[in-house]
Task: inverse folding
């Protein structure tokens, strides 16, 4: 018995050493970022990073020149191409849109979305898009949304609350940004012309660049294709567009990509800078771009009173106690 016990301890220790050596050590330059194992594919290398999957995807994509192929366990159907390359994104979401529906897998995984526009594809999506477009551009809908803070359609409810949560969290970390927003509101607020609040818009865009409410987009080509990055994609394969990673890429946003800097959105003449949607993808890009973008921005910029009375010190206390909870 004692012999078996010792053997078990030895085998467990051996497994621990192998695990530590292959999955937890830092890769030296030249080594592949993700090793593909027989049967298990790249899954073992990904598992330790599941709790920080968005940041890990960003790190792998940055080290693999913005696109990498993930090999899943054999026969699991989880092989996927991950990309945050703006050229590929433009190709998939706009130039060759017809070849890239979300695919039946998306509908299965996101069953909770039901048969609404967010999960629909092809003809059904076209019909829903037309009817939604008509509603969103109807004069009565526009009048109602301009006079109300309470329009909450299910497509936009969670995204808007996610943006606001990150926005106030970032303001608590960057009080000088809040001061500038308040100065702008006090001097320029005009309920009929909210676009005047350039700095507030810039701070919101900057929040959505770093913390997009929809961090991934899934596509599945109808026909085989070659992406601008040179990667081949087979019909019915899976492609994941990494929106979270895209917003943090130094090659796309510059060396200060990880910093929260609303100023990057303001041109020299003091106007809001336009960035192409395949670079700033918070509202998606191409024909499936968000229909509620204008409404969402209008609702958020109307939070004048909230922004004027928001207390950074209270927020700091809350985030400190959250951090204490995290460390338990
Ligand atoms: C800051 C807030 C918002 C963000 C960041 C946002 C972002 C997005 C994104 C990324 C998509 C594409 C989803 C996908 O295809 O997987 C989308 C689609 C959509 N959004 Fe928004 N959204 C916001 C607010 C809203 C609001 C307030 C509404 C409506 C009142 C709305 C209506 C829609 C609709 C109808 C679609 C489907 C478009 C289509 O598939 O053709 N969104 N949104």
Result:
């Amino acid at each position: 018995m004692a012999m078996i016990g010792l053997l078990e301890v030895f085998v467990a220790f051996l497994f621990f050493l192998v695990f530590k050596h292959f999955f937890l050590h830092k890769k030296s330059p030249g080594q592949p970022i993700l090793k593909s194992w027989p049967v298990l594919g790249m899954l073992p290398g990904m598992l330790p990073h599941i709790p920080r999957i968005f940041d890990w995807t960003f790190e792998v994509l940055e080290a693999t020149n913005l696109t990498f192929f993930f090999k899943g366990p054999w026969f699991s159907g989880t092989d996927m191409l991950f990309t945050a390359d703006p050229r590929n994104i433009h190709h998939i979401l706009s130039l060759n849109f017809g070849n890239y529906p979300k695919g039946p897998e998306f509908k299965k995984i996101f069953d909770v979305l039901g048969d609404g526009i967010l999960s629909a594809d092809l003809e059904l999506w076209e019909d829903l898009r037309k009817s939604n477009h008509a509603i969103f551009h109807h004069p009565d809908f526009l009048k109602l949304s301009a006079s109300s803070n309470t329009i909450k359609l299910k497509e936009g409810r969670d995204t808007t609350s996610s943006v606001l949560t990150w926005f106030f969290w970032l303001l608590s970390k960057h009080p000088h940004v809040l001061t500038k927003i308040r100065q702008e509101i006090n001097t320029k607020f005009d309920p009929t012309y909210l676009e005047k609040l350039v700095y507030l818009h810039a701070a919101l865009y900057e929040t959505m660049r770093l913390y997009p409410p929809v961090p991934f987009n899934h596509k599945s080509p109808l026909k085989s294709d070659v992406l601008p990055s040179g990667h081949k994609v087979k019909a019915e394969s899976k492609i994941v567009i990494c929106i979270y990673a895209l917003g943090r890429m130094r090659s796309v946003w510059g060396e200060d990509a990880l910093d929260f800097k609303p100023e990057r959105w303001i041109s020299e003449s003091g106007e809001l800078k336009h960035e192409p949607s395949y670079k700033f993808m918070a509202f998606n890009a191409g024909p499936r771009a968000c229909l509620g973008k204008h409404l969402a921005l209008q609702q958020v910029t109307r939070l004048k009173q909230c922004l004027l009375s928001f207390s950074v010190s209270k927020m700091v206390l809350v985030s400190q106690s959250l951090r204490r909870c995290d460390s338990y």
Observations:
- The chain has 15 helices and six strands.
- The chain has a mean pLDDT of 85.
